[in-house]
Amino acid sequence: MRYWLRYYEKSRLAFHATHDALTGLGNRALFEDRLHQGVELAKRHNQQLAVLFIDLDEFKPINDTLGHSIGDQVLIHVARRLEKVVRPSDTLCRFGGDEFVLLLPDLNNVQQAEEIAERLLVELALPYRIERHELYLSASIGMALNDERLLHPEELLRQADMAMYKAKQQGRNNLQTFTQDINQKLTQRVTLRNDLQEAILNEQFELHYQPLLTREGRVKGFEALVRWNHPSKGSISPGLFIPIAEETGQIITLSQWVMERAANDFLALQAILPNHCRIAVNLSPMQFHRPSFLNTLHSTLEATGLSAHSLELELTEGILMNDTEAAIETLHALRTMGISIAIDDFGTGFSSLSYLRHLPVDKVKIDRSFIVNIAENGKDAAVVQGIIALAHHLDLLVVAEGVETSEQRQQLIALGCDVFQGYLFARPMPFEALKSWLEEQEILV
């Protein structure tokens, strides 16, 4: 009897040494051991092997807003879904947090690994119903393949990790395979991440403003767009530094700076603007889902003196899809304050148009991808017409982003669009240029 008890205890300890306590999947120690074995076998038998690095998108806001108990249940559900897809010969492990790694040995070809990865993406994107919450997740997957130049098995893991970050950059919810180009760009990205902290401390950022106009030419407001003037690299694209700021959490400090600067700039212009004008500021998912968001915003309005009725907040569809009930409560609180809410890049999310009727928002901004060919493409025109009709039925204003030609403007007017934004009217411009633009343009205000 003692022998079996000792055997059981020894087996239990051995299991816990190589497995994740929460999900029951293998841990890093087990994965690294299997990776070494797999690479050795692949070399010996001239086989193809792949490593997939799987990172959940937007998991942190769920964990922060709903608590670790819900977050843990999400991770368990994710683990079970991943297990449904993998083969018996594969090794699936959790590295901690929302990171999972999959070893695919003995592949017939690269396409087989890609098919498995695509099935994982589909499985993970299905809704998660946990307690009273309906949650939506996606994943970014990086893949690395073994070759004869591989010096150490751990390189495969590092390469898959780099490819995963490329997937994040490409809009998330996709698969990227490691290349040397990714290696070079990620090295630049790490440098940029370090520079970003210095940029925030030394205020290397500035705001540019792009006007929004009604069909009659009246100024409806301005969107504040952050720009980074790097001391040695010049202008850095927001498409590059915003995702980095979100990954590192620096987006909170940056967003607060944007809010304060935009408020002060708008107040400096208020004497020459009509009462209906608003300053539009973009919200990040991390900012919106923070428990302190509403209190921080209220304090900012008090400190700057900006009226809530002069502020518009722009959110993407994805921000509102996780824990919709909590998001709706926050939106109601914002509107009670007098703040206008706009859904940005509308039409690019994975949600249906019908969900719009449940959201307390004031306007939708049609993504520029639907506008660029609207004068020539009947399908784009039909989509835009449908969005405008639905929005008007719900008493929402419609803004067209990226309007660059008179033909696009005329088509949008014919379809009933309310407000316009784009290069046809004005490019984003610094504060002083905006003042001059307002003085020089014969625009109805």
UniProtKB/TrEMBL annotation:
Signal peptide: none annotated. Pfam families: EAL, GGDEF. CDD domains: EAL (cd01948), GGDEF (cd01949). Gene3D superfamilies: 3.30.70.270, EAL domain. Residues 189-442 form the EAL domain. InterPro entries: Biofilm_reg_signaling (IPR052155), EAL_dom (IPR001633), EAL_sf (IPR035919), GGDEF_dom (IPR000160), Nucleotide_cyclase (IPR029787), Rev_trsase/Diguanyl_cyclase (IPR043128). Residues 47-180 form the GGDEF domain. This is Uncharacterized protein. It comes from marine sediment metagenome.
